[in-house]
Design goal:
Length: 1424
Amino acid sequence: MEEMKEKKIKREERHRDTWDPFQLNPVGSEKEGSRICFRVMQYLVAVIVGLAVLTSAVVAKGSLLVLTTLSSPKSLRTPKEKQFYMLMLVFCLVCPNFLVFLKSLWRCAFKSFVRPNMKTMAFICAIECLVSLGTSVLVLVVMPEFDVLTNLFISGGVCITSAILQIVFKLQREPWRITYPVCSLILIVAGYCLLGIDYYVRAHSHVAGETTHCFTFVAIGICASLLVSLCWWENPLQATNRVQDTLSELDGFRDFVFIISSILRIIVIAGVYLVYHVLIVKSITWSNFNLGNKEWELLQTGLVLLLLQAFCSAACHWFGVVACKIHAVRMGFALPVCCTGPAVLLVGLILFLTQAQTLGGDKTVNITEFCENLKYQSLKNTSPMTLLEVTHSICQTSLNSYYLQWPFSMLALEGLCMWTGFLTCTYYVWKTKVQRIERTSQLFVRRLYESAFIDQSLLLNTKIKVARAKNQASHDEIQDCVIYLCATMWHETYDEMLKILTSMFRLDRYRGDPKEEHSDYFNFESHIYVDDAFTGEEVPERRKVNSYVEDLIHVVVEVYRVFTNKEPDDVSIVETPYGGRLMLIMPEGNMLYIHLKDKRRIRNKKRWSQIMYLYYLLGWKGYIVKNPQKISSQLDTRRASLISVDGEIFLPQFDNDNKRKFISDDNTYILALDGDTDFHPKAVILLVDRLRMYHNVGAACGRIHPTGMGPMVWYQKFEYAVGHWLQKTAEHVFGSVLCSPGCFSLFRGSALMDDSVLKRYTTTATRASEYVQYDQGEDRWLCTLLLQQGWRVEYNAASDAYTNSPQEFKEFYNQRRRWGPSTLANTLDLLHSGAETVKRNTSISRLYIFYQMFTVGSSILGPASVTLMIAGAFQFVFKIAGTLSIIIASIPPVFYILICFVTKANTQITIAAIMSILYAFLMTASLFSIIGDMVVQGTFLTPTGVFLVSMAIMYVVTALLHPEEFTMLIYGLMYFICIPSGYLLLTIYSLVNMNIVTWGTRESNKTEGEVKKQHNLLCDRNCRICCWDMKLQVTQEATNMLYQQITGQLPQQVAPLIDNKQGIPLQAITNSGPQTQPNHKTEAVNLKEPKKGSPDQWKPAVSSDSDYEDDKKSSILSSSDDDDDEDYFNTLDLEEQEEPPAYDWVYPVKDEFLKKLTYANLKKNLKEQIWYSLRNKNEDDVCEELVLMLTDTLNGELSAVGPEDVLTDIQVDQLQHELTQQARHILKTNGMNRLEKRVKRAIEKTLAAPKLQKLDEGEEDFWNKLLERYLEPIKNTKQHEEDVTKELKSLRNKAVFLYFIINVLWVVATFFLQAIGNDIISIRIPRYFPNGTPSGDVLKVEPLSLMFLLSFAVLLFIQFLAMLYHRVYTLIHVVSYRGSEKAYRKKDDDDDDDYEDDHILENVYTNQLALSSDDVSSISTSFN
C-alpha cells in the first residue's frame, strides 16, 4: 500500500509538468534488499554447522579416549579384548593418512603431476615421519598407560612449537600481542611441570598401584608431544617472507609429496605398533585375532568406536572448513573447537552422575570404596562397559588416594594450563577475516588433519594472516578486477532490450560511484553491440539507423528515467569506421557504450561481434594501459559531463582504462551477454567469485532460465532444468563444463588471450565442417578452444539469468538445427584431441573423456532408442507382437527422413509438428497404460516400472533440492510426451538440414534489399488493359534522369516532387529532421572529412536537400572568412562554435536526446541534480530551499514555453544565467558559499546537450586495421559458394549415413532378438509384489535392452550423485554471499567540498590521467 501511494505522488508531480506523465516500470528496477529470510537462513546454517563441528569433535575425541582406555594394560578387559582395541586404535591413526593418499593419488593420476624437488621432498618427508612417530608413540604407547583425564589434558601441549615460532618471527600485527604466544609457552611448560608433579605424588602415594615406572612414560609423552607439535611448522613460516619461495615451490608438487609422506606415516605407525607391542612388551598373540561367534559383541563395539572416531574426525574437519567459508569463523568454528575439551569433560561428568548407580555407586560412601567396588563388577561387553572402564581409569588418579586427595587439584590445574595455553596460542583464529569465497588452501595450511588431536589440528592448521607491506603481494587477498559487460544484439524487440538495459542499470546501482571502493572490489563498463544497425543508401554518409536502434534509444531513455527520475545527462555521439558509437554515463557514473555496426562496413553475426569487442577491450585497451604514453591528451576538459557534481575532474570513459594499469589480465573479465538477458548483480558477483577462487578457471556460466509462454517454452523449461540439474553439475564435478552459453558467461581475459584461443577464434570458415563447428555454435567452440589450452570452465547454480526462448515450433527447430550439429562437432573435436587435452588440462582426466564418449554414444543412439520406446508403446497399448511393433515404429522416422530430403525446410517443420502431436497422444496413452498395468499386476517391480518409478523419485528429490525451481516438475509431463519430437524428429531434421548454415531465428521480416526496392518509389500502380495485367513503378532516379535529358539540369537541382495524396514534398518528409530542429548549443569538435583511399570511407554523397546543403556550405566557408570574422569568433565562448557536418544518422539520434531540454524534463532534471549534488544529510535544508527557489525561477523564465518544446540556444543561455545568479544568492544568504561550485556544476549538467565527439586518431587507426585484417565483410565468389554448398551436402550425407547405419544396427539387433524369442535368449527376472513376496512369475528381458537400460540408469545415478555434491557447495557459496552482499544506504559525506585548484590537480594526477599542459591550463581557466 505504501509503495502504491509513493508511486501515485510521483505520478502527480510529473503530471503537473507534462500531459504525458506515464512511464514504464520494468520488473526488477527496484533496489535489491537483503531479505530477512536469507539473513535468518544464514544464522541458522551457522548455528547448525557450529553444532555439527562441536558434536563431531566431541564424539571423535571421546571415542579415541575410550579406545585408549579399553586398550590400557590397567583395563579390566581380557588380553584378547585389549589387543583388539589396540588394533582399532592403530586403524584410527591410519584412516586420515589413507584418505589423503587416495585423494592425492587421484589428483596426480587424473589431474596434474609436477616433478618434485628432491631436497624439499626429503625435508617434508622427514618432518612427517617425525610427526607420525610422535603421534603413534603418544597414542599407542603413552596414552594407554595414563588415565583418561590426563589423556584429555595432555593433547593441549601439541601447540608448543607453533607458540615458539610465533615468538621468534614476531608475527603479531601489534607488538603487545606477542604476549599471547609467550603466555601460551609459559602455560604449556607449567602444564608439563604439573603433570610430572602429579605422577610423582601418585607414585609415592601408591595410588592404584602406581610405581616410579610411570616417570618414563611421562618423559616419553612430553617428547612425543614436542614431535607432534612439529606438524604445524609451516603455518608460522608461511606468514613470514623467509621461505616463501620454498613453500611456493612445494605447492606445485604437494600432491606427490602427500602420496609419499602418507605411505611413510602409515609405515611408521605400523612400525611403532609392532616394535612396542611385539618386541618390547610382547602383548600380541596372533591367534587372538581370530574372533569366533562368541566375540561378536567385541567386534561390534570395536568397529563402532573405530567408525565413530574415523567418520566424526573427518566430518569435524569438513564442517570446520564449511564454517569458515560461510563467515561463521567465530560462532561456527573457533568457539565449538575451543569448547571441545570442556565439552568432553562435561559429557563424561553427566554420564557418570546419571549412570553411577548402575556401577554400584549407591552402596558406597566415598570415592575410594566406589573405585574398590568397580573391580568386582562382572559387566562385560554390554552398554555400561565403556562407562565402567572410563570410571575405572578415573580411579587411577589421586582421587583414589587413601592418604592425600589434594594432588588431584594439580591434575585439574594441569588441564586448565594446557587448555588456556592452547587458546592463547591460537588467538589469531578469532581475528581471522575470511573473504566471501576462499579455497581451502587459503584457509588451512595442510590438507591432512590429525584425527587423534582433531580440535588442536583444526585451530593450529588455520592460516595465520599477517598484514604485508604494499610491495609484497598476497595470494590470499582479493584483487581488484574490471568487468566488461558485452551484449550482442540482433533484431531484439522492445521488451527484450528493456531486460538487458534494466540489468545493466541494476549493476550500476549495485556498484555505485566508480571513484569509490566497493566491497566486491570490481569496476565495470557496459558495451552493447548492435548488428545490422543501419538501413538506407549504399553510401555510409547517407545511411540512417533502423527501427531497432530507435527502439534501443527509447529504451535507454526510459530506463534512465525509471532509475533516476530524469533524462540522460551525459551523451556523446561518435562516428567510427565500423558505423557509430553512443556513450552514456549511467546514473552512478559507470559507462555505457552502444556500438552501432554497419554490415556494409563490418561483418555481422554474433561471433564477429565477439571478436570485435575482444580485440577492442583486450587487445586495444590492454595495449593502451601497457603504453600510457599512447593515451591521447586531446581531452576537452570544458565539457560538463567530464566534471563531477563534487567539483572533481572525472573522465569516466578513461577511468577504467587507467585503473587497468594496476589490474592484470587475469583479473580482467568479459561478461558475454545476449540482447535479451535478464540478470541481477548477485549473479555476476557469484561468477566473479569462481574466477577469483581458482586461477585455472577460464570461464564460468550460470543457471539459464528460459522465459516466454506456450507449449514450446514449457518443454524448454524442463529441458533446461534437467540439463543444468544433472548434466552441467556432472561435468563440473567430474571434469569441466563443455559449453558456457554466450547469453550469460564470464570469461577471464588472460584465458581468451592465450595462444590458439582468440587468434584461432578469428578463423574464417572455408570448409563445410568449419561452417558447422565455427559459426553454428560459437560459444561452444570458444569453450572447446579454452579446454584444449588447459583452462577450466565451471558452472555456478546460484547465478541465475533469464533469456527469451523460442516460442514457435519453427523457431525452436531452427535454433536446435544449429545447436545439434555444432554440439556434436565440438565434442568430437575434443574427444579427438583427448590425449593432448588430458596432458594440458588438469581438470580433464581419462575417465572424464570416457564419460563424454559414453554420453556421445547415448546421444547418437537416441533416435533408435526412441524408436524402440515407441515400439514398446505400440506393443503395450495395442497388444501388437514385438517384431511387428518395431516395424510399425520404424516407418514414421524413415518417412520423415525422405520428407526432409525432398521438401523445403518449412514443409519439413510443418510435417514434424503434425507428427509430434500424434506422438504426444501415443506417449500419453503409453504412460497411462504403464501405470494401469502396474495397478492391475499389483507390482512395479518390472524393468519398465522400476525405471519409471525410480526416475520419478530421482526428479522429485532433485527438484526438492532446488526449492526455487520445484515448479519445473509441472512441465515434466510436457517434456515426456515430447520426447519423440525432441530426440527423434528434431535429430533427423538437424542432420538432414546440416547444409543450411543460416541462423533461422530473429530474421527481420523485410531484408534490406526489399526495403531498397521501395526507396524513392514515387508511383506503384497495378493496371489492367483488356486481358493483360501490368505493373507500373516510377522511381525518383528515373524521374531525375528523364528531367535531365529534357531540361539539361542536374539531378540535384530538381524540385521535390509532390505526393498526390498528401500534398507534401517527399524530399521534405525524408529530410525534415535537420531542418525543423533548433540549432542547439554544442561542443566544438573538429571532425575531419573522410580520407581518400581509405577502404572504409566513402566520398560524401550530394544531398537532395538544397537548404541543408547551403547550411553545410556556410558552416564550412565560415572558417575561411576575413579577419573581421576571425576576430568576431574569438570574442565568443568556445562552446558557441557550430558543429561540423556529420553523417545523416547522427542528427535523428541527437534529436532524441535533445528532448531533455524541454520544460517538463528540465524541471525534473534540475531537481534531481540538486538533490544528488547536495546529497549530504546535513545539507537537506539548503537543498530543499535551492530546489524550491530554482524551480520557481525556471517556471518564471519558461512560462511561455510549452511542456514539450525544446529550448533554443538563447533560452538555454538566459536560463543558465538566471539559475546561476539565483543559486549564488541563496547560498550566500545561507552562508554556504563553499557549495557554489557544486550547484554550478549541477546546473551545467542539467542544461548540457548531447555532444559530438571525434574518435581518437590512434583508436581510429586500430579500427581500420582490425576491419582490414579480420572483420571486413565477407564477399565470397559464386564459385566458392557453390563449392561450399557441395561440401556441406556431402558432409550432411556422410553424417546422415553414419547416424542411420548405427541406429539401424541397434534396431535390427533388437528386432532379431525379438524374432528369435524370449524363450531362447533372455534374462529371467523373478517378479515380486511390493511387500517383497515372490509372485511366482518370471519376467523375460532381452539382454541388449536390459544392458542399455542399466547403462542409462547408471549414468543418471552418477549425475545424481554429482548433483548432491554440487548442491552442498552451492549452498555454502550462497550463504557466504548473503553474509557479505551490499546494503544500500544513503551516503554520509561530511568532507569539506571546497576544493581548490591545487586539490583538483592533485586528484587528476592521483587518477593517473595523461593530461597535457594545455589541458591543465584549460582546467584552471574553466574553474576560474
